[in-house]
Design brief:
51% of the residues lie in helices and 11% in strands. It has 307 residues and is of the alpha/beta class. Strands 3-2-1-4-5-6-7-8 form an 8-stranded mixed sheet, sandwiched between helices. β2, α2 and β3 form a beta-alpha-beta unit. The relative contact order is 0.11. Bound molecules: NADP nicotinamide-adenine-dinucleotide phosphate.
């Protein structure tokens, strides 16, 4: 698969950016990958790990002559980064981002970029609870979706080139309206994260169950919540601040369903519970059939990790 860009600039060098760089290495990208990050420590780590061809000190230097600029910073930092790089972008370059929220990013970034560049918002639906410059790996995007939310009137060739880029990294690409993206992600990612944060917080607050009991006897359900709740606090703060409406709508529905299940438990309505759990089990099967997760018991962790 060929990549249409000669120079790719990565702004921010965390999980997503470092995974992009690793994946570019894996496919033998012949162009140049230039990276930068806010702190000297992150730049130093990235330099040591060597997944970029060049690490530079400033965002302005990174975007010089870049054909593709990928904004890989938390959603709340996108506006400032866009303003910083704007005067230095090459005419005809494509600027994209990987932010987990799309409407908010578009509102903040689009007005700050010059009309001479193609701005194509994007979101790879791939991640882990790890963050930072040493957390990336080449296969992160394999068989995962990357959603592009191009604005009306965007040059189709620029969209096709960005699509080809993500496909070369191993992803499948689809397009979506930004508002719809934010609603879908509120259901599939944002609300579940908030629920995981809450459940881990509840366990932490429950004084009748000691902290060591929570840790030592953590069963699969709670352990999976703790993995999600270990995600980067800055990233997730920004997600909720920027996807307010959709997240609140989904949490409203969640609360209603929770009340219905609470009532079924109180009334001893086993049929309701059984029907509900049968329906939800089918969704898990659908995810496995779509190749989006493993069907191995306990996510294939094996007996050692589960004991
Ligand atoms: P990460 O590992 O925490 O890395 C974030 C990077 O952004 C770091 O290089 C950091 O620089 C830089 N940064 C932080 N605050 C900044 C600021 N105010 N100004 C400029 N740079 C700043 O994050 P990530 O997981 O790669 O996430 C990056 C983006 O991808 C986010 O928008 C997130 O919503 C999105 N995303 C994440 C996932 C996921 O699961 N993690 C999945 C899909 C999309 P320093 O290290 O120098 O501080």
């Amino acid at each position: 698969m060929s990549i249409a860009y000669k120079r790719v600039a990565l702004i921010g060098l965390g999980l997503i950016a470092s995974s992009i760089a690793h994946a570019l290495r894996r496919v033998g990208f012949e162009g140049e990958v230039v990276g930068t990050a806010r702190t000297a420590a992150t730049r130093e780590t990235a330099r040591d790990l060597g997944y970029c061809d060049r690490i530079v000190e400033t965002e302005q230097d990174a975007v010089q002559d870049a054909d593709l600029v990928v904004l890989c910073v938390p959603v709340g930092a996108m506006a400032q980064v866009a303003a910083n790089i704007s005067p230095y972008l090459k005419a005809g370059a494509t600027v994209t981002d990987v932010g987990s929220v799309k409407e908010g990013v578009i509102q903040e970034v689009a007005p700050r970029l010059p009309e001479t560049v193609h701005f194509i918002p994007g979101h790879p639906l791939a991640g882990t609870e790890q963050s930072g410059p040493a957390s990336g790996f080449a296969s992160l995007f394999d068989n995962r979706w990357c959603l592009l939310t191009p604005l009306p009137g965007t040059d189709p060739k620029a969209v096709a080139d960005l699509t080809g880029f993500w496909e070369a990294l191993g992803a499948k690409v689809d397009q979506m309206e930004p508002a719809h993206h934010d609603l879908v992600l509120a259901v599939t990612s944002h609300a579940p994260h908030l629920i995981a944060y809450t459940m881990v917080g509840v366990a932490d607050d429950l004084r009748r169950v000691t902290a060591s009991e929570v840790v030592n006897y953590s069963a699969a359900g709670f352990r999976d919540f703790t993995r999600i709740a270990a995600s980067d606090p800055t990233m997730w703060r920004d997600v909720f601040l920027n996807n307010k409406q959709a997240t609140l709508e989904i949490l409203g529905r969640f609360t209603e369903e929770l009340f219905a299940l609470q009532r079924a438990i109180r009334r001893g309505d086993g049929d309701h519970l059984h029907d509900y759990f049968t329906r939800t089990r089918a969704i898990r099967r659908g995810i496995i059939e779509a190749g989006q997760d493993t069907d191995a018991p306990d996510f294939g962790r094996g007996p050692k990790e589960t004991s």
